[in-house]
Design goal:
- The chain is α+β, with helices and mostly antiparallel strands.
- It is 45% helix and 10% strand.
- The chain has three domains: 1-81, Double Stranded RNA Binding Domain, CATH 3.30.160; 85-201, Tyrosine recombinase, N-terminal domain (DNA polymerase, domain 1), CATH 1.10.150; 214-396, Intergrase catalytic core (hpI Integrase, Chain A, Orthogonal Bundle).
- A four-stranded antiparallel β-sheet has the order 1-2-3-4, with helices on one face. Strands 5-6-7 form a three-stranded antiparallel β-sheet.
- Helix 3 (86-96) crosses helix 4.
- The longest helix is centred in the middle third of the chain and has 20 residues, at 165-184.
Amino acid sequence: MPKRVPPLTEIQIRNAKPAEKTLYFFDGGGLFLMVEPSGVKSWRMKYRFDGKAHLLSMGPYPAVSLKDAREKRENAKRLLASGVDLSENRKAVKTAGATKSANSFEVIAREYLAKIGDSMSPGNIARIQTRLVNDIYPWLGARPIADITSPEFLKVIRRLESRTVYTAHRAMRECSRVFRYAISTGRATNDPTQALRGALAPVREGHFTAVTDPAAVSGLMRAIWGYSGHFVVSCALRLAPMFFVRPGELRHAKWADINFETAEWRFTASKTKTEHIVPLARQAIAILRELQPLTGNGEYVFPGGRTPTRPMSENGILAALRRMGIGKEEMTGHGFRAMARTILDEVLGFRPDFIEHQLAHAVRDPNGRAYNRTAHLDQRREMMQRWADYLDELRTGETGTMVTATSTATA
């Protein structure tokens, strides 16, 4: 059994002399003093998180005394016991500023967003952070999270509600997740947002606008194919109704995920986090082949105009629709999904479960088990080719099939 090392004393630390190599003096619990050949003394703490060894700086001696270092060690151990990544906590404290304590709302919110970063798109994380920076941190960021009360939080969220009710509701949900994270890591005991249910004005339910009358789709397709703006945006516009994937998925399409030999685009669906397959119709392959010489040397199929190493702006397609005179009450980027779902079902007569699979929705069998990504793939190939042909027919006026159905269904 290894011999237990006695804890350090102030006399030992003061008398520790530098040598040719760095010396280490251990105090227990992972804490040790490092004495460099230059004579600089500083505190470090060894710890393990997620099965990996890490090293945390505790500051220089004598600015940080033995007593201070031990207090920091105990605080760090409490955070570790609660499942907090000390390195993320340190980054959050640094980003929030020296005046913010490790238990302030801003520090814990930044730490939480870093923790969930892999489970959400960078765009979503950035939007949440922007809301917090602009509307929450100025009033609550420096406050110890355990001290924030329901009336105090309501006063802050009312400012946002006065501008936009929808965003106020979203901000309150996001803050609730931060409070719950603080509870789970032992730094708060309650979520003050829970007492505020019903306190905000209700959100008026709305839907993504979509054109679903073939006569109107005909005009929309002609407008899209007549778009004279940037070539990359033009290609994205033409493929958006053909693929009917979520707008963020289209923007983040990568050349590495497109296989011309199998005529497939495979990627991870943003909502279900499962692999999704988009069979490529002949028309889609032709557009991609034409675009490849321009953007094929990069990562993204539709790179940003100013920063090619990033995907095109989330407003790229939306802005193009507006420039063509197509208002938000007529069509949105997300509306292509509702357009395809309605017409594939009501006009072209494809089975709803084929359509739902192609929309990357979570479709389950009678026993409640989720179907895999290849379910009905042959039928979906046929459907996607027929859909591309039908869009061409509407654009060129070669179809007489009409339907009067209109919809603003959510997607």
